[in-house]
TrEMBL record:
Keywords: DNA-binding, Transcription, Transcription regulation. It comes from Enteractinococcus fodinae. PROSITE patterns: HTH_LYSR. InterPro entries: LysR_HTH_N (IPR000847), LysR_subst-bd (IPR005119), WH-like_DNA-bd_sf (IPR036388), WH_DNA-bd_sf (IPR036390). Gene3D superfamilies: Periplasmic binding protein-like II (3.40.190.10), Winged helix-like DNA-binding domain superfamily/Winged helix DNA-binding domain (1.10.10.10). The keyword DNA-binding applies. This is DNA-binding transcriptional LysR family regulator. Belongs to the LysR transcriptional regulatory family.
Amino acid sequence: MEVSDARAFLALAEELHFGRAARRLQMGQPPLSRLIQRLERSLGTELFKRTSRQVELTVAGRSLIEPARELVAASERAVEAVKSTITGQIGTVSLGFAGASSNAEVAALTRELAIRAPRLRFEVQSSQFADDSLKKVLDQSLDFAIGLWEYVPSELDALHLSDDDVLIALHKNHPLAKHERIKIAQLAQDPWINLPGGYNSALQNRFRHLSLNAGFVPRRNQTVPDSWTVMLLVGLGMGASLTLSSVASSVPADDVAFLRIDDESNTPLPLRLVWRRDAFNPVLQTVIETARDLFG
């Protein structure tokens, strides 16, 4: 049974009058009568009892109502799915992000997409470092990434979401901890605790820039895997660290003081959403437009 046959059958089954059913279907009564006869022949049974006064469903006709409704509904769902895919409302999108610096933005984007495109599947993957997510966007294993990058490869487009201040973290009993701002050169003799650095690691590139400008190479430089470990070790008095305002506000650090850096070159680091320039999928455009409305 074709979808058009099912629609015609249902119209007649609900109206029980050829004239009314034909008007509802916007067709003539004779074509509707021929369509029903053809359907009955194909099924090998009578679906309606016809008299000069009335039209009634047969037992076979009544049994066909639900399957016909399911066929029409399935057809409508199929059409809607295609339309939604074309308009970017259905599909799967993957987003990578790293740590505390982007938690708020990831949550806001996820909530807004759930409202605007509830049938969109938004897969969020946390990585240890923003550099990892960037590489995955470049090799197309991720559609999007959110992270702190001062420079973005030419293959990618980017949307600026917010800024993250670069701070110094010290133990609260450090001699300089009571100051609001200090020069990084004042910590030239202190041990440092840092995150691993990649070629595009914004925080570590900033640390190298500031220390070189201040004319020193860190006396001791311990590398640890994540910001939580950094704050733990700083809180134990094992060294100073360059960190971010987002980390200061989200990672527990009762024994840590956060100070601003007295250096005009220490501008905030930009938090960006990045994607490939050659990405033309309508579903990806839905994410980009939503992010622009939220943050742009």
